[in-house]
Amino acid sequence: MREISNIVILTGAGISAESGLATFRGPEGLWEGHRVEDVATPEAFARDPVLVHRFYDARRANLKTVAPNAAHLALARLDAEWPGELLIVTQNVDDLHERAGAKRILHMHGELRSAWCLACDARSRWEEDLGDHPPCPSCGAAGRLRPDIVWFGEMPYAMEAIDAALMNADLFVSIGTSGAVYPAAGFVQTARYRGAETLEMNLEPSLGSFHFHESRTGRAGELVPQWVEEMLR
Ligand code: APR
Strand ranges (DSSP E) for the chain? Predict the structure, then answer.
């Protein structure tokens, strides 16, 4: 087996499920509660910004009621102690990786705690409600802030950095994602094509499980700490 030095870890909603944040496609899934077209598209925001702001304001407020779980904490420990390169690419817009202490994180779908001004293009850290149409902290324009979330049909963030990391990875690990949404669902194929080992940890086999050298099924709160112990042994 190839010497492992550079690790890329992809996380999805499943890693935050045990912190109490709903996943998107489970029985209690977030999108089940809201039709995707109603909240997570640029068209929805143009049509009904109040509804979209209310949806994300509720999710932002919910962040205050949850905490990182054992899987987030284990990844933060690996981030701190792993001697090689390590990158956590998360599809999640929560801040649980940061609050667990991880540092090397890329949010490819944006963040609930960030707002984007459509007048001056500036991003600003955001804790409160955008539904009150607050002024942009950078340019002062009122009512021009949108959630800094990558919506369906929009380009994910940091794709060049992610592709570069995948090209250079010795190990690609996918945690808590259904493999339903691209480009993230294709990362395993890129990594494998470049000769990386690939490991999936998920509550059930994902849509792309067959691409992985190894697939472990179970709760992230159990599987991820076990895996980190193995890596740091
Ligand atoms: N431990 C591990 N995996 C879990 C757990 C758990 N405790 N609970 C649920 N899962 C798994 C589910 O089995 C599912 O395969 O997590 C996965 C979550 O899948 P989705 O709900 O589809 O979430 P995700 O893959 O992150 O969605 C990707 O789709 O809607 C868009 O932009 C949104 O970032 C999101 C993207």
Answer: 7-11, 86-90, 105-107, 110-117, 123-125, 145-149, 171-175, 197-202, 214-217
